[in-house]
């Protein structure tokens, strides 16, 4: 019943991961950077679920891990947005190139 | 004697204590200094008495450093010379501490002065207790520091600053000699201990040339410290310091350290005829040379300074003529009467509101009823008038020189004695007799804290000679050389006419001074008008300072100027180049650190990509 | 590869997901970007269902398409924005470099996954999928599960503290 090859799923995940990576490294708005990171995490999830079904030892474990990843991602977004808001209140900006205190 | 090491610690305690609390104590600092040096004095006297009763010297030391097979030790030793020096130093120091309370009254840095005095006394006492050359050297330099600090005490005066620097640098020249000599000895003997060095000398394990060389190098150190020719010029300049300092350091103790060093290493010198001859010649020359300069000086302290140089030359002459006892004896009597003279001079200066030119003084005998007679006692002692202490010690020296066979040096010494008597009485008559040559203002005798030490020293200046006389027994001499044949005899027998000659010469000097400066039956310019060139040469101290300025100082200056240019252009240029390259690298590196998280992430990711690419191309999973 | 219904579904979902991602990269307005991403997340949920992970698909829609996207929108609304995404920070040559890097990275991995087939029979994960996950979670992964709840709690409190603290400061300033 595997009419769709495993390669197709993995390739989709790869494409989404690359898009997320490119976005995270080039976008100026911190919110978009955060979203790009979420996209990368989602690509990973696709991989996990794919291997959970078509992998060497198919098992439900992959899906369980995907659940964990989603939970961690949700927590990350919550904290990330909170940091962003705090930062915005202090610096009046969400542009990542203006947040360069690491330089000093 | 076991507790002799405590003696230097009292002044050290005084120094530390006054550094910490002196600012609050103000003039109360004096009591701390006086009491602690009094403790030193008491202990010193106890040690001296114990040493007299004890059959042998006491020595205690502990290993300080261990370098392979070699052991450097630190400790203290009480032998006859040390015990005697301890008493001299702590006594004069105590008296000067007391005297300074009156002399320095009202000075802003009163407590600093006492702290420095404590430091110096500590160093000097440590110096005389040292059982080995290394320790001696350490305290030797500490003494130099104390002297530097005290000469430059009035650091706001240009002359005082220059004098302090000059004293430090000139003694330093001598110290280099001492250091080299010390290291040579260590190389030869493998130890800094006096005992072991003497044992090696006696056993003949060092070659004759090496003994001569090391002895002369050590003597160079002594020349620097004791102001012998040609390194004498710092001592008269050092008179810029407060007068009690001149009395303590530049008359009684530190300048005697050179003589003490030669005396302490006497067996080494005794083993080399050449070294002895050098010491004797330098000593005799310095004695007559400084005495002749003293004839024409007009500053009261400078006259005394040249007299000190001259008397130190005497001591060196005695040591160089195998007159160990005579040298040490004169060192002791000189410490007392020269300290007395300086303190009395200080009293005069104090009374005259810091006027030092004797041309402006006169007729002070009545106005200073205590200082005048005390000064006279000192003058009589230094001139070698019979029955005063200087007479006996000077006599011993002359006999030693005669007995050693240096007849030419003997004649020089006699002439120097004549000069000494003459210029000392010239000084006395000009200051205390006749009429005041300038308005002196309100002249008052100094307070008791100043006169009491002078009285003590006055008594000593008279009686100190009786511990070693040809008439009543040579107690000091016998004791000093007891149990040590290398030091020579306690008393050297000499022809009786020497004593008569010495007496006649000093009386002649006094008489001439009396004619010229008291009766004025002989015009003062009788000599100066006949030989103006000689007079001007003497008056300008043989132009030694000018000669040094033109030769040594000028040469050093030009060399250092040249080096400065090298430093500025070559060294600094190289340095700037290196620093510039590094900072340029750093700057270009820091441009990557722009704080942009995305740039960092990109760099990391690209690095990963490149690594993967390399992995794939070099036969990774594509393979 | 037959043109089955499953294949059609995968293809359409995949295209929607990739197009959503491309929109994220190319749109200029922040809100539009987030909307584009919403489609991506939704089609990923579809992909999950295709991969017999119905529970995960529902969670995906709830958490991503629902919660996270909404949070992002709130974040956008609470911070002031120039609607236009301005010139990107990174210079052109850097973007090109990054593009080359990303493409080569993707190409390398594609070579790795191309033609990958383990030949195993797929597990029957779609049968009572939620029950299976529940059993695994509570039987094999109890401790990570509990730790996850602690993590979420910490994140919750952390988020509150982070955004509240500054309120206090603002109040003090004013």
Automatic annotation (TrEMBL), chain A:
GO process terms (BP)? ATP synthesis coupled electron transport
What is this enzyme's catalytic activity, as reactions? a quinone + NADH + 5 H(+)(in) = a quinol + NAD(+) + 4 H(+)(out)
Keyword list (alphabetical) reads:
Cell membrane, Membrane, NAD, Quinone, Translocase, Transmembrane, Transmembrane helix, Transport
Cellular compartments annotated: Cell membrane; Membrane
The membrane topology term of the UniProt record is: Multi-pass membrane protein
The answer to keyword Chaperone applying to this record is no
Transmembrane spans: 6-25, 32-52, 64-88
| Gene Ontology CC, one term | plasma membrane
Offer one Pfam family short name for this entry: Oxidored_q2
Query: What does the record give as EC number?
Result: 7.1.1.-
The domain of life is: Bacteria
One GO MF annotation is:
quinone binding
Q: What top-tier enzyme class does this entry carry?
A: translocase
Coiled-coil stretches? none
Described purpose of this protein according to its UniProt entry: NDH-1 shuttles electrons from NADH, via FMN and iron-sulfur (Fe-S) centers, to quinones in the respiratory chain. The immediate electron acceptor for the enzyme in this species is believed to be a menaquinone. Couples the redox reaction to proton translocation (for every two electrons transferred, four hydrogen ions are translocated across the cytoplasmic membrane), and thus conserves the redox energy in a proton gradient.
Q: Which PANTHER family does the record match to this protein? A: NADH-UBIQUINONE OXIDOREDUCTASE CHAIN 4L (PTHR11434:SF16), NADH-UBIQUINONE OXIDOREDUCTASE SUBUNIT ND4L (PTHR11434)
Belongs to which family?
Answer: Belongs to the complex I subunit 4L family.
Q: How does it assemble?
A: NDH-1 is composed of 14 different subunits. Subunits NuoA, H, J, K, L, M, N constitute the membrane sector of the complex.
User: Any idea what this protein is called?
Assistant: NADH-quinone oxidoreductase subunit K
Source species of the chain = Mesobacillus campisalis
From TrEMBL, chain B:
Q: Which GO terms describe its cellular component?
A: plasma membrane
Keywords, ordered alphabetically: Membrane, Transmembrane, Transmembrane helix, Ubiquinone
MF annotations from Gene Ontology: NADH dehydrogenase (ubiquinone) activity; NADH dehydrogenase activity
Matching Gene3D superfamilies: 1.20.5.2700
Which part of the chain is the NADH:quinone oxidoreductase/Mrp antiporter transmembrane domain? 130-420
The main location is membrane
Q: How does it sit in the membrane?
A: Multi-pass membrane protein
- The answer to whether UniProt assigns keyword Transmembrane helix to this entry is yes
Q: Does the keyword Transcription regulation apply?
A: no
Q: Where in the cell is it found?
A: Cell membrane; Membrane
Start and end of every NADH-Ubiquinone oxidoreductase (complex I) chain 5 N-terminal domain?
A: 64-114
For the biological process aspect of GO, one term held by this record is: electron transport coupled proton transport
Entry's transmembrane regions: 6-22, 29-49, 81-100, 112-131, 137-156, 168-187, 199-224, 245-269, 275-296, 303-329, 335-353, 374-392, 407-433, 454-476, 496-517, 565-585, 597-622
Q: Which family does it belong to?
A: Belongs to the CPA3 antiporters (TC 2.A.63) subunit A family.
In Swiss-Prot or TrEMBL terms, this protein is called NADH:ubiquinone oxidoreductase subunit L
What species was this sequence derived from? Mesobacillus campisalis
From TrEMBL, chain C:
Q: What keyword terms does UniProt attach to this protein?
A: Cell membrane, Membrane, NAD, Quinone, Transmembrane, Transmembrane helix, Ubiquinone
Which family, according to the similarity comment? Answer: Belongs to the complex I subunit 6 family.
Q: Name one GO cellular component term.
A: plasma membrane
Q: Does the keyword Membrane apply?
A: yes
Keyword Membrane listed: yes
- Reading the lineage from the top rank, the first entry is Bacteria
What name is this protein filed under?
Answer: NADH-quinone oxidoreductase subunit J
Q: What class of enzyme is it?
A: translocase
Write down the Pfam families for this protein, in alphabetical order. Answer: Oxidored_q3
């Amino acid at each position: 019943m595997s009419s769709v090859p495993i390669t197709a799923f993995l390739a989709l995940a790869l494409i989404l991961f690359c898009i997320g990576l490119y976005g995270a490294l080039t976008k100026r708005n911190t919110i978009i950077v955060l979203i790009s990171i979420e996209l990368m995490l989602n690509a990973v999830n696709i991989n996990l679920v794919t291997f959970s079904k078509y992998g060497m030892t198919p098992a439900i474990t992959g899906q369980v891990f995907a659940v964990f990843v989603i939970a961690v991602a949700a927590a990350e977004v919550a904290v990330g947005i909170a940091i962003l808001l705090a930062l915005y209140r202090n610096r009046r900006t969400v542009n990542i190139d203006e947040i360069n205190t690491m330089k000093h | 004697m076991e507790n002799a090491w405590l003696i230097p610690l009292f002044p050290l305690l005084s120094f530390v204590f006054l550094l910490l609390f002196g600012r609050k104590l103000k003039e109360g600092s004096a009591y701390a200094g006086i009491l602690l040096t009094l403790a030193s004095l008491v202990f010193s006297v106890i040690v001296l008495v114990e040493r007299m009763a004890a059959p042998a010297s006491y020595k205690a030391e502990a290993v300080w450093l261990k370098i392979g097979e070699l052991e450097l030790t630190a400790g203290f030793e009480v032998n006859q010379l040390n015990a005697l020096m301890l008493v001299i130093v702590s006594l004069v120091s105590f008296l000067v501490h007391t005297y300074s309370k009156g002399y320095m009254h009202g000075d802003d840095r009163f407590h600093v002065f006492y702290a420095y005095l404590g430091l110096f006394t500590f160093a000097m006492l440590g110096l005389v207790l040292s059982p080995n050359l290394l320790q001696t050297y350490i305290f030797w330099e500490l003494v130099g520091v104390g002297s530097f600090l005290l000469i430059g005490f009035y650091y706001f005066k240009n002359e005082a600053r220059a004098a302090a620097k000059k004293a430090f640098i000139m003694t330093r020249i001598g110290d280099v000699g001492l250091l080299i000599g010390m290291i040579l000895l260590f190389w030869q003997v493998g130890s800094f201990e006096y005992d072991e060095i003497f044992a090696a000398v006696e056993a003949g394990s060092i070659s004759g040339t090496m003994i001569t060389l090391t002895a002369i190098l050590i003597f160079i150190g002594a020349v620097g410290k004791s102001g012998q020719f040609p390194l004498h010029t710092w001592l008269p300049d050092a008179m810029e310091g407060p007068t009690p300092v001149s009395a303590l350091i530049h008359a009684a103790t530190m300048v005697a350290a050179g003589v003490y060093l030669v005396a302490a290493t006497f067996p080494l010198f005794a083993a080399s005829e050449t070294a002895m001859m050098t010491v004797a010649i330098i000593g005799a020359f310095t004695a007559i040379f400084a005495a002749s300069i003293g004839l024409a000086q007009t500053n009261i302290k400078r006259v005394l300074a040249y007299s000190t140089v001259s008397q130190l030359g005497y001591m060196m002459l005695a040591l160089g003529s195998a007159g160990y006892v005579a040298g040490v004896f004169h060192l002791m009597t000189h410490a007392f009467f020269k300290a007395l003279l300086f303190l009395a001079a200080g009293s005069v200066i104090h009374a005259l509101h810091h006027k030092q030119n004797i041309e402006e003084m006169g007729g002070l005998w009545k106005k200073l009823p205590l200082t005048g007679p005390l000064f006279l006692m000192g003058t009589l002692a230094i001139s070698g008038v019979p029955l005063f202490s200087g007479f006996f010690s000077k006599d011993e020296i002359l006999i030693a020189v005669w007995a050693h066979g240096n007849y030419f040096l003997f004649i020089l010494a006699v002439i120097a004695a004549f000069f000494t008597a003459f210029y000392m009485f010239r000084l006395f008559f000009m200051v205390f007799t006749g009429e005041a040559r300038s308005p002196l203002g309100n002249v008052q005798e100094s307070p008791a804290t100043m006169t009491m030490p002078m009285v003590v020293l006055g008594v000593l200046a008279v009686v100190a000679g009786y511990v070693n006389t040809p008439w009543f027994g040579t107690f000091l001499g016998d004791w000093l050389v007891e149990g040590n044949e290398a030091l020579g005899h306690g008393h050297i027998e000499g022809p009786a006419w020497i004593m008569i000659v010495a007496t006649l010469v000093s009386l002649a000097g006094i008489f001439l001074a009396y004619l010229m400066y008291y009766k004025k039956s002989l015009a003062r310019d009788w000599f100066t008008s006949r030989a103006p060139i000689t007079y001007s040469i003497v008056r300008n101290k043989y132009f030694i300072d000018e000669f040094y300025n033109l030769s040594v100082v000028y040469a050093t200056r030009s060399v250092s100027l040249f080096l400065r240019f090298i430093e500025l252009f070559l060294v600094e240029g190289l340095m700037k180049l290196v620093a510039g390259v590094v900072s340029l690298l750093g700057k270009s590196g820091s441009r990557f650190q722009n704080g942009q998280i995305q740039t960092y992430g990109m760099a990391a990711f690209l690095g990963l990509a490149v690594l993967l690419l390399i992995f794939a191309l070099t036969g990774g999973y594509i393979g | 590869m037959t043109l089955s219904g499953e294949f059609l579904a995968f293809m359409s979902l995949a295209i929607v997901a990739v197009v959503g991602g491309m929109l994220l990269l190319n749109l200029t307005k922040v809100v539009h970007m987030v909307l584009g991403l919403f489609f991506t997340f939704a089609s990923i949920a579809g992909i999950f269902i295709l991969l017999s992970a119905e529970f995960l698909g529902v969670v995906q829609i709830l958490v991503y398409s629902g919660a996270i996207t909404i949070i992002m929108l709130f974040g956008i609304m609470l911070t002031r924005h120039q609607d236009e995404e301005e010139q990107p920070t990174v210079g052109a040559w850097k973007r090109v470099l990054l593009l080359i890097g990303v493409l080569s990275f993707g190409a390398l991995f594609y070579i790795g996954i191309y033609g990958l087939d383990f030949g195993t029979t797929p597990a029957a994960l779609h049968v009572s999928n939620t029950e299976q996950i529940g059993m695994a979670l509570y039987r094999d992964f109890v401790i990570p599960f509990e730790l996850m709840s602690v993590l979420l709690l910490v994140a919750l409190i952390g988020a509150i503290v982070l955004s509240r603290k500054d309120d206090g400061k603002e109040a003090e300033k004013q």
